[in-house]
Automatic annotation (TrEMBL), chain A:
Organism name: Hypsibius exemplaris
PANTHER family registered for this protein in UniProt: VACUOLAR PROTEIN SORTING VPS16, VACUOLAR PROTEIN SORTING-ASSOCIATED PROTEIN 16 HOMOLOG
Superkingdom: Eukaryota
Pfam families cross-referenced by the UniProt entry: Vps16_C, Vps16_N
Function in brief: Plays a role in vesicle-mediated protein trafficking to lysosomal compartments including the endocytic membrane transport and autophagic pathways. Believed to act as a core component of the putative HOPS and CORVET endosomal tethering complexes.
Protein name, per record: Vacuolar protein sorting-associated protein 16 homolog
UniProtKB/TrEMBL annotation, chain B:
Native organism: Hypsibius exemplaris (Freshwater tardigrade)
The protein's name: Vacuolar protein sorting-associated protein 33A
Biased composition (Polar residues): 275-285
A Pfam family per the record: Sec1
Protein origin, superkingdom: Eukaryota
Amino acid sequence: MANFTDNWSPFGFDTYYRKFELYQMGWQKFNVDLSEFALIAAQTQGGNIAVVREDRKKTPSITDPSVYVSTALIRPNIVIFSSSGRVVSQFVWNSGPLLQLGWSSSDELVCVQEDGRVLLYDMFGTFIRTFGMGKEASDVRVVDCRIFDNGPNTGVIVLTETRRFFVVSNIAVNSVVLRSMGEIPGMTTFKPSCWAVVCQDRDIQVFLAKESELFVVDKSSHFQQVPVNLNEQTRGFVAIAVSPNQKHMALVTAEGIIAIKSTEIDSDPYCVFDSKSPTIQPKQLAWCGNSAVVGYWEKAGSHILLMIGPKKDWINYRFDSAVYLVPEMDSLRVISRDAHDVIQKVPSVTMQVMKVGSMAPGAYLLEACREYEALSYKADEYLKLVKPNLEEAVSQCIESAGQEFEVSMQKLLLRAASFGKAFLETEGLSEKFVEMCRNLRVLNALRSYLVGMPMTWKQYEATSITALLDRLVNRRQYELAYRICGYLELPSQEGAARILLHWSNYKMNQRNESDEVLAKAIIAKLEKTPGIPFAECAKNARALGRVRLAVELLERETSAQLQVPLLLDFGKEEMALSKAILSGNSDLVYDVILHLKQKLGAAEFLMRIRNNREVFALFVKYCKQLNPKMLRDLFFQEDWHSEEAFTFIPESYEALSIAEQITALQNAVERFDHAKDEFNKKVTEDQIKLIRHQIKLEEKFPGRKFIGLTVRKTLENLLRDGSFKLADEFKKDYQISDRQFWFVKVDTLAATAQWEELEKFSKSSRKPAVGFEHFAAAAAKNGNRAEAQKYLLKVEDDQRLRCMLKMGMLEDAAEWAAKQKDPVGLDVVLDKCRREDSALAAKVQAYKTSLGFA
Amino acid sequence: MVFFEKNAINFLSFKDRARRELLSCLDACPGTKALVWDDYLIGPFSLVAEYSVLQEHQVSRMFTLEKSEFPTNLDFTSMVFLVRSELKVIKKLAKFIKKAGTVQKSSNIPKLYVYFVPAVSTVCKKALIEMCPSADNLVEDFRECAIGAIPLETDLLSLELESSFRDLYLDEDPSPLHHLATTLNAIQQMYGVIPNIYGKGKYAKQLIDMVGKMGKDAANSEWNIASRFDNLFVIDRNVDLITLMPTQLTYEGLVDECFGITQATVRLPADKFPNTGQSSKTPAETDSGKKDAKDKKITLNSTDELYAEIRDKNFSAVGPVFSAKTKFLSAKMGERYSAKEVAEMKEFVAKMPHLLALKQSLTTFMTIAEIIKPLVNNDDFLESLEVQQSFLSGVDTDKIHPVIEQLIARCEPFEKVIRLIALQSEINGGLKPPVLTQYKRDLIQSYGFEEIVTLNNLEKAGFFRTTPKKWFRVAKETLKLFVGHAEDGTPKDFSYIYSGYAPLSVRLARQLVHPGWKSIQDVLDAMPGDRVEAKQKVADHLRKRRNSIGSTMSGSDEPPLVTLVVFVGGVTYSEVSALRFLSNQEESSTIFYVLTTQMINGSTIIESLRETMKPSIL
């Protein structure tokens, strides 16, 4: 039986650390020696490694020109390797003297120059952008710097020759803000022997050692000495390292004493450990997770890692070549000439399942499974042991599978889980199992030699899937990312569409490809996936100067809202207009119209928009509200005389004098004439005539108001005053119809109690234009029953009943209906009198009965 | 298996949506807020959120663009403007903000946020800045408050676009279509893809095209909701202007004709109502302090059982309902005397709230009926009703009608006269030119020269025609549009709504569901505008299960056919009543829902096409 714990080392009570190999480094063939590198920067979470060979130029020291000091790198070659040692890219550094390299959380290579300029490159050596660390830094030279993780962001801090710190706490686009840190009195005179950055809750502190004294400064210029109680004298601190969670720090003294303390200022070291190597200073000090610190010493050609725990537990690891330590949140990676190793505290679930002699259910289940596979009866015995806790056992096996890098181990543990699962019907376990299989598949793909992202389970869990996809995209692992999206069934918008957008952007950057070829290739791929943001894609193409491609892509955008403004941007107004119209979104059409209006001269603009009915209508609406003058020009241009005429009508009402009013109306008349609109022309002419007429009338009848009245009202006023002759003329002048005239005259005469005139009028024509029922009704309405009766007699028989009812003469109506033998009429009367007059109702009933209609 | 309950779809869910949207808009503005309303929006928004809710979201004061002055006492952090994205509103907004510019300098400055309802409009933004350049600096942010459709009832969704009819048929601005398409999209997201699409009219076609285009995108975003609607029927208002013209004769329709219903509420003179001592404060009442004490606001919706029963009935048929309810009530109230045992009394007390509520609503709705009665029982009303009926039956439609002439001479309300003329024109398939000219001359002489513009607008919008389109006669026969005198009591046909006239739009909807449009294709094609019949793809598993699509005759285990009728340009209360009548019929297994751009009647539409011009010299 193979022992799972071969690579485990005990580390205090019930704690083990394990060290295992991730990769044989691909760079072996280049004969790489880590000690030859001037700069090494390895990204956390299994990222890339950037290296620069030692090639420092010696320059005369400022203080003593006879002494040459090695300074920054002048024209080095920067090589970027993946974690597995494959060359990703290399490029020649051709900017200023290079001081330090580092990686940002978004996979950018951060290069800090001696003059404080920070340059960002992608991992393929493409320059992204740059920013400076301030005037002072560029004036006096930066002597040291750190590139640090600040939550999800990345920060840069530099130390200048004047011993001042400047920090940018987030180097992301648009958030670069430079701040200076507090100064320590007298600091200019010493160089800190070591320093480190602690950032917690966005608060940034620098711990720095001045020989045996430790200080802390922060952004609020606050500084403080940090007491370090070591129980013995020291010549000074030579190394300092902060744990990944920023809670602990380790210090190494010149005497080789290692002290571990909390990053809280007023705390004593909780561990002081003598490394027994007082003469040699450690080459690197790094944390392994948050619970052990590792020092790297080179002693007579052998490379020793000494890991110390808070309880003074320790382990030694020996290497035959130089190494480089990369601290991770839960482990430490050790990169050497030949291999890439991990030192990690054995996760507790792994302990439970695999520790020798473990009595945890998972351990039994694993044993049971192994026996079962070996066709041994012992399987049953182990199973019996675990039966009561089978669920827990399955969970443990599933979880521990996640902790393994070795695929065969993963499989073994999953087989055990699956074996145990067969005896259970618990809900959720299967989901958990499937989930783990999926995740492992993704993890194994990431860890593969070709991709080279050796993430631990904990790191994987701490990373969102989108962040993970971003990292793959940054590595141009588009296909893998795309497949992961499909495999994990991510919604298109978050997954596949986003990946394809990046991919297309990468494609577009391939300068030697023509727009046509690219368009074909890109669209063929993108069209199959829903939710592709084609507008954004087009924007990218446009930014690269590929206008034709951009237009082709934009054509595919489904949201007109995104499409139209971009088309305008691209100068494709016609297309923008047609897309806007098609969308039915008037606002977009207006966007185009106003864009054209601004871009073109007035004349050209008007010519342009006439071609389209919808556009024209919208522009007319716009002008009606905001620009009536332009509206008229438009109608004029189009020879829309009638429309043009109508624009003068509101103007005539807004006019401040009668002269102006008449001018406006005359303008309207002229246009109506052009339009051959006889009716409106006549009506408008009549209006002009009316106004003039009314002025005369007001002169003639001082104190009377005529101006502004309607034709009918004017007529009524004349009739009220008894100016019948004028009224007759007025009727003729304005072609008032006979019936209108008669209605108005009858009503007016009755209303003004001109009864004689009314009678005269009723007899004035042999054939009155309105029936006598109107005379009767008008009289009745104005309270003259006697007059009403008079006209009632003349009313035609078929109208008589109706007229009587209208006048409220129910009784008469009843009699009339009875006389006419009109049952329907009787019903109508009955209906009217049902409530008010029961006696009459009875009478009507009687009539009905007598007529035989009851 | 039962897939559907009758009434499974409830448009009131759109209220929650709208409310969430509004509140999230408010929450996005810091601190205490003053709300400044586009006056028109107060109505629709009062259906969405009560003032107390707004207060919970730190709204401390409210103003309106039209009626308020810019406040001098600026005791709030943010000033939030809620405006429609329409140029005429922007003009008012510009004026208001200009005042802000003068006040702000001196005091601590509130932040100004402009929310466009229902969508940000660049043209409005530009226009605002053009009219009031300081707005660019003063306004912190332009945002959108995407409140589109507002449910007026569980089966009725309205965009409440005040000028949708004018926009579409006079200004040819298709914005209402865009808003409708967006809403239809939202409906499909909620209730699944609607498989069968029908439409009649130019704008119906345009809308269906837009929905189709959006549907393509929708297929992309992988909706996975079972289809709840079977049919979508889009009708362009232009196809059926006739129905707008006669007076609506349902209870609700008459309330609307006489007093105007806005957002399911009506204002009536308070002194007509017995003082019940209880003030039923509707949300809108507390909304703004500018209410006349003389007016009483009454909410009209089917949460009131009595109103639900009478709203769709012909006005003449509500009397019996009132008397039955009164009898029921007095019998029930009488039980308190007969109750002797404690248990009986307890039972009575338990019923009390319900009885009191019934009493309250009986009082209210009988009072309304009393107010309406004299308005409809007078000779003038009956006379124009008679004219309507004679036109609808096809009598005397080709010459000048003496009653109309008389109405003009008496300067009766303009809208009333125009409705009759328009009815005559539509039914006759256009008027002879001399007839129309005479009407127009008479109208201008009576109502003033300024109506020349209104008449032009009406002609453009199709209210009067001289070019003959004689399809109505055929349609009347084929679709049985005029049934003549309708039966009282329990009618069998929805022509009772107009006492004999069955609205064309509803007949088309009915025909569509059963037996289908095939038999009336000729008539449909004779009517103006395109006819659309289309299908949308629905994934098999999202399809409604039925034996054969379009069969409504099968047994009760079949789920009912659910149809969404979209009225482009507006719908009347009567048409909604007619559709409800169809949904509620025992033997019918079909349910109608309505989506509209706004609630209208003939008069409000004519009013919206009217230009108001007052001479400035006087």
